[in-house]
From TrEMBL:
NCBIfam families: PRK05303.1
Any one GO molecular function term: structural molecule activity
Full protein name: Flagellar P-ring protein
Keyword Signal carried by entry: yes
Lineage of the species this protein comes from: Bacteria, Pseudomonadati, Pseudomonadota, Alphaproteobacteria, Rhodobacterales
Domain of life: Bacteria
Family the entry assigns: Belongs to the FlgI family.
Cited InterPro entries: Flag_FlgI (IPR001782)
Recorded name of the encoding gene: flgI
Species in which this protein is naturally found: Roseinatronobacter thiooxidans
Biological function: Assembles around the rod to form the L-ring and probably protects the motor/basal body from shearing forces during rotation.
Main location: other
GO BP annotations, alphabetical order: bacterial-type flagellum-dependent cell motility
Length: 370
């Protein structure tokens, strides 16, 4: 796939987003979390078998030998006192997330990660592993063939690794054995927790819900919480009430932010970012030092010794001049981008410029540097 095609698709996506910029409303269920509708993290410790000589070394990972011995003994194989050190097994940590309202017999995805010195889990099979919740109870059991996300190749003198072969996943690899006790129908009030707390957004959610039911059924209690009184809602159950409001269109109020990723040079500027009137120029110096030592030898058959004469060339060069660019007061996102592009600077130089504007007190937004 050519870079030109990728750029054209990306530009088409941006144009489509700009065309719908006027309709900035979002579904309510994409803005809030409903009280009680949440997942639960699960954790387990298990064994992966069937590796192609890339498993744990028993000398460096004695816990692998212990769990292997326990599994074999439960299967009726007595290995007490035996000296066996296979290289095709690995001890792993298994994690999963139990989704809300998961029922017994359902299946969930699991992630498997090596904890010993195994080099790869590619092609391995996870042996039956119980998954515990925070209360210590077993809620699911995982087993299956691992799909590793990396690859490794090695020889006698070199080794090449791509990705992370010591971690993988098993799609639908765990079966739910116990349900989380939660009586959703007995609720009298439901709290709607905003993912991004904001007073204006919470007030708009309250107004939208009350307009839907034509009465005062919702109340904003703080910037991050709206309480829905189910006793005032004429609905057969709490599920019916939430199904009625979860698709309401709400326009969120987003705080002005500038997010900068210094590692990749990515800059994201929010729509509500404003700056005061300021002039910006960007430049730099290039320092160049070259060492070209010269070897001096005595004449043939003459007395003397060979010496090295240092020769250094140092040069300081100014960067190409860039004129001042003025960003007027109340400048919007499009003006900021146009002004920075007018300077002809790279994204990493724009990061320094934004930091300097913020230090001057002219950037009216939250600057987040990652």
């Amino acid at each position: 796939m050519s870079c030109a095609f990728i750029r054209s698709v990306f530009l088409a996506f941006l144009l489509a987003m700009l065309a719908h910029a006027a309709d900035a409303s979002v579904r309510l269920k994409d803005l809030v979390e409903f009280d009680g509708v949440r997942g639960n993290d699960l954790l387990g410790y298990g064994l992966v078998v069937g590796l192609d000589g890339t498993g744990d070394g028993m000398r460096n990972a004695p816990f692998t030998e212990d769990i292997l011995s326990n599994i074999l003994e439960r299967l009726g194989v007595n290995v007490t006192g035996e000296q066996f050190r296979p290289r095709n097994v690995a001890a792993v940590i298994v994690t999963a997330s139990l989704p809300p309202f998961a029922r017994a017999g359902g299946r969930v995805d699991v992630t498997v990660s090596a904890i010993g010195d195994a080099r790869s889990l590619l092609g391995g099979t996870l042996v039956m592993t119980p998954l515990n919740g925070a209360d210590g109870a077993i809620y699911a059991v995982a087993q299956g063939t691992i799909i590793a996300g990396g690859a490794a190749a090695e020889g006698q003198g070199a080794r090449e690794v791509r990705g992370v072969p010591t971690s993988g996943s098993i799609p639908l690899g765990a079966r739910v054995e116990r349900e989380v006790d939660f009586d959703f129908t007995s609720l009298e009030r439901v709290r709607l927790a905003l993912r991004v707390p904001d007073l204006t957004t919470a007030l708009r959610i309250e107004t939208g819900i009350n307009r839907e039911f034509n009465r005062q059924v919702a109340m904003m209690t703080d910037p991050g919480t709206v309480v829905l009184d189910l006793r005032q809602v004429n609905a057969p159950s709490a599920a019916h009430a939430l199904a009625r409001i979860e698709n309401l269109r709400i326009t969120p109020q987003i705080r002005a932010r500038v997010v900068v990723d210094q590692r990749s040079g990515t800059i994201v500027i929010g729509e509500d970012v404003r700056i005061s009137r300021v002039a910006v120029a960007q430049g730099g110096l290039t320092l160049r030092v070259e060492e070209t030592p010269l070897v001096v030898q005595p004449n043939p058959f003459a007395e003397g010794e060979t010496i090295v004469v240092p020769r250094t060339q140092a040069q300081i060069q100014d960067a190409p001049p860039i004129a001042l660019a003025e960003l007027r007061e109340g400048t919007t996102l499009s003006n900021i981008v146009a002004g920075l592009n007018a300077l002809g600077v790279a994204p990493r130089d724009m990061i320094d410029i934004l930091n300097s504007i913020n230090a001057a007190g002219a950037l009216h937004a939250e600057l987040i540097v990652q």
